[in-house]
Amino acid sequence: MADLALLERVLGPLREKILLMVTRAVVRRIHEGGGQIQVEGIAGEISDRVERWGVVGVASHPKPGTEALLAAVGGSRSHLVAVAGDDRERRPTNLAEGEIVVYAPDGSQATISLVDGKITIDASGDVVVNGGTVTIYSAQVDIGNGVLLALMNETLITWLDAHTHPGVGAPSSPVPPTTKTVALKAS
User: Does residue 50 sit in the same domain as residue 74?
Assistant: First the structure.
């Protein structure tokens, strides 16, 4: 029996370190820039300036109340890092296999799916693309409901109607409208 007590006394601290290496916490405060957070962990333990680790190339600024998964580097509770975060109350749960959702605390979201090489983005609000130039390399561009199609046809017809060919033998007035128009396929 003495051997068991000795074993418990020797391995007890190691057991505690192992049990506390990965724990849950709640984000209480986000420091400027969102790279460090204050969390409340086990039994009300407050840890401040905890590093937030994430996926390379993706950044976020969590909202207080977000849950975090903490790792104690080297088993030391004085060196915690947040390796993941989640907002289970707001996280969309009705995803199809392979879908990705970007969501915000206000409930807005954009779902991105990739099926058979086709990327689809469904947004709960407007989609805005800001940039100097938007370039599309594609064999075909389909614009839904025909709005752009009508706009392009109207602009092209107006341009063609006003187009003249100055020079020898060219008409001096606009060329009569053509019956053939170039159209984008509307879906």
Answer: yes
